[in-house]
Write a structure and sequence with these properties.
Distance between the termini: 71 Å
Oligomer: single chain
Shape: globular
Radius of gyration: 25 Å
Number of strands: 27
CATH architecture of the largest domain: 3-Layer(aba) Sandwich
Strand content: 15-25%
Length: about 700
């Protein structure tokens, strides 16, 4: 008789699935850093409880690999502060005292209070806001507009949409994907997938072919060590000067595509005249990148075309001059003839809910068709007119100002899913504004600092507790189903939104008809059959009939029908430059009193804003708030590793522990955001914003550091 190699007790301890252990293996996805990349997760489940999470081999997102965030899925789902029942405030706002109520009572009160504001002040005096997660956003945006309010907004007022504005102002497309497999040069500008996703495109490094790799970043991140042929360590906020210098060198070396420029580019002569002033020596004085390295980078690019450019969703545009810096980078794609060409940057439409699967849908029509065109201007429209023209959302960075001033009209109620006021600059100002509302409702997974200020709190389901349709490149589709028992009486965000649509008595039969009916409308004509995908029982389904975007097929949606280096859209606004003009983006403070540059929001592999502070495994990787500085900057101030320091700006001060890091350029202070006890966004000055986009200059704030 052959003895079993492991006892049942050992197999249960090892979490081995099987009939004898009672452990089931169920497929779902991680939504912690939603919407991208939504990595596939194998969930080990026993008695309805999640035991552990692993990546799914072959899944289009992750391919068997999970980052530290995804691996901590169990602790995330079962956080001590998970919301389990609807709550109603019984104490003072912000005091955190609530009582449990039924879903009917909570939803009825939200509907009653929102309609009361609508009746007294007008529908647009109620704003609707989405933070994290993002999957339900088309539904919340449609609810807002069907309610009659123009004021839908999201955390994308500080993330990603400024890059969309840059592409739109130049090409009319929303975003692109770099075709690394066919690129001659890959330009990784602020490229840090090893911290912001899983272990990067591949554990041994992300090279997709034989391309040359140039990485541009203020920090020497893993991508530099694993991938780069050339590393340009730049001073944050000077990216436009470097891009213009590279363009100058490419033009002088005649490494540009004259035929492409003649056929597809508008404003090249004006652009060429402008960038001629950016010699490598001048750029070195601005960027700290040696002139010889700038020439070397231009030689690499010019000798290895086409050029594929990667960019972060927010690192470049988180500067007061970020929009123009981003446009200067994109201009390199035009002059090298790489835009919409094999091996370059391929236009990639938003397929659904901020995910790009290579094909277009009716999602924009679904979001916008009930927009109340005769309503007042959106929040921030007067202050940021270019944003208002290019992005169909309020600019939420102006929300606090309008709540506090009541001008040009009052905002008296806010309905939000996943709002985190700490994501905004000078965020105590937004906190104060929220305290003054007549009504504030929050739907979330956790009892956050923002939720503690609400009148009504609704508990949301995680991705493991709900059904959801996902799309991936390929293209493929996936309709997931709950894999664990809910932690309490929680509901999916879309179910909450649809139920509110009914109780608000809005005239939107499509939204009131349910999640699947809305999906069928969004995907009509694409070849994606919602019923077929749902019936696949959680299996990824290839979409053979769906037509995907191919290089060379893009039609420019600009006034000239070309790639506009000189933007006709921007030309309409006084004080704005149609060319990718470089300007200093530093905060307005005395450089002698504030000699260092604060970079707020530098990513860590274990963090995602403040969402993971209370996940024990992840918090253990950096238990206390720390600021990263070059060792020589600390030595000059007599500060040693781990000592407490004060970081001060014109807006205020915080304290943290000093963390020496040779990866950081001298003169910089990198600080991750989201720590309540060291809230770096709170000291980013109010008004330190990009005038084109409204984005805060998180990554270029003058500061001083001193030992406590």
């Amino acid at each position: 008789m052959i003895k079993e190699p492991f006892s049942l007790k050992e197999k249960i301890k090892a979490k081995i699935p099987g009939e004898d252990t009672g452990i089931l293996l169920k497929a779902s996805f991680c939504d912690i850093c939603s919407p991208a990349p939504s990595c596939g997760v194998n969930c080990f489940v026993k008695d309805g409880k999640l035991l552990k999470a692993e990546g799914i081999q072959g899944h289009p997102a992750g391919n068997g690999v999970l980052c530290t965030k995804g691996l901590a899925q169990r602790q995330y789902v079962y956080r001590k502060d998970r919301l389990k029942v609807p709550l109603k405030r019984i104490g003072a706002r912000g005091e955190g005292r609530f009582e449990a109520v039924s879903w009917d009572e909570a939803l009825d009160e939200i509907a009653e209070r929102l309609n009361a504001v609508k009746n007294e002040y007008g529908a647009s005096s109620a704003a609707f806001f989405s933070g994290y997660n993002k999957w339900y956003r088309p539904f919340l945006q449609r609810l807002c507009y069907s309610f009659g309010s123009v004021n839908y907004g999201s955390e994308s007022s500080t993330c990603f949409l400024a890059t969309v504005m840059a592409w739109k102002s130049m090409t009319g497309c929303e975003t692109t994907m770099p075709d690394r497999k066919n690129a001659g040069t890959f330009l990784g500008w602020g490229f840090n997938p090893y911290y912001s996703r899983n272990m990067g495109p591949a554990p041994e490094g992300g090279r997709k072919g034989n391309e040359k790799v140039i990485i541009i970043d203020p920090r020497e991140m893993p991508a530099v060590r694993l991938e780069a042929d050339l590393f340009l360590q730049i001073r944050p906020g000077t990216d436009g000067a470097l891009a213009n210098a590279l363009a100058r060198e490419l033009i002088l070396r005649d490494k540009i595509d004259h035929d492409y420029i003649e056929k597809h580019v508008y404003g090249f002569e004006e652009y060429r005249a402008y960038v001629m002033d950016f010699t490598p020596e001048k750029a070195e004085a601005i960027t700290d990148v040696p002139a010889e390295k700038i020439r070397e980078a231009a030689a690499v690019i010019g000798g290895n075309l086409p050029l594929a450019i990667s960019h972060s969703s927010s690192t470049i545009v988180h500067h007061k001059n970020g929009f123009q810096n981003q446009r200067a980078i994109y201009a390199l794609s035009a002059i090298t003839g790489s835009f919409d060409q094999k091996g370059g940057n391929i236009p990639s439409p938003d397929t659904y809910a901020h995910t790009r699967a290579g094909f277009a849908t009716n999602v924009e029509r679904f979001e916008l068709e009930n927009y109340p065109g005769e309503g007042p201007q959106r929040v921030g429209a007067g202050q940021y007119p270019l944003w208002n023209e290019l992005i169909p959302e309020m600019q939420a960075n102006a929300l606090a100002d309008q709540i506090l001033s009541g001008e040009p009209y009052p905002i008296r109620a806010v309905m939000t899913h996943g709002m985190n006021y700490r994501m905004f600059q000078a965020d105590m100002r937004l906190k104060k504004a929220l305290e003054e509302l007549d009504f504030f409702a929050v739907a979330d997974l956790f009892m956050t600092d923002t939720a503690k200020m609400a009148d009504i709190i609704l508990p949301c389901a995680s991705s493991l507790e709900r059904s959801e349709l996902k799309v991936y490149p390929g293209p493929k589709a996936w309709y997931t189903h709950p894999v664990i028992d809910p932690v309490g009486d929680v509901r999916s965000d879309t179910d909450i939104i649809i139920e509110l649509a009914k109780r608000l008595d809005i005239k939107d039969e499509l939204l009131r008809s349910g999640y699947d009916a809305c999906l069928k409308y969004i995907f009509e004509g694409t070849g994606l059959d919602v019923d077929r995908i749902r019936a696949a029982e959680g299996e990824l389904v290839p979409l053979e009939e769906t037509k995907t975007v191919r290089p060379g097929e893009f039609i420019f949606k600009t006034p000239t029908g070309k790639f506009e280096l000189y933007s006709k859209v921007i030309e309409k606004y006084d004080g704005f430059c149609p060319l990718p003009q470089y300007s200093d983006g530093s905060s307005e403070a005395d450089p002698e009193e504030y000699p260092l540059q604060l970079v707020a929001g530098g990513r860590l592999p274990s963090s995602m804003h403040s969402r993971l502070n209370d996940v024990p495994w992840l918090r253990s990787l950096r238990p206390q708030p720390m600021a990263d500085l070059h060792p020589e900057d600390l030595d000059e101030r007599g500060i040693t590793a781990g000592e407490r320091i004060r970081i001060r700006t014109t807006e205020g001060e915080i304290t943290a522990a000093a963390n020496p890091s040779s990866a950081v350029k001298r003169g910089l202070v990198f600080m991750t955001n989201g720590y309540p006890e060291a809230d770096v966004n709170s000291i980013v000055p109010h008004g330190h914003n990009d005038p084109y986009t409204g984005y805060p200059g998180f990554r270029n704030v003058r500061c001083t550091v001193e030992k406590l």
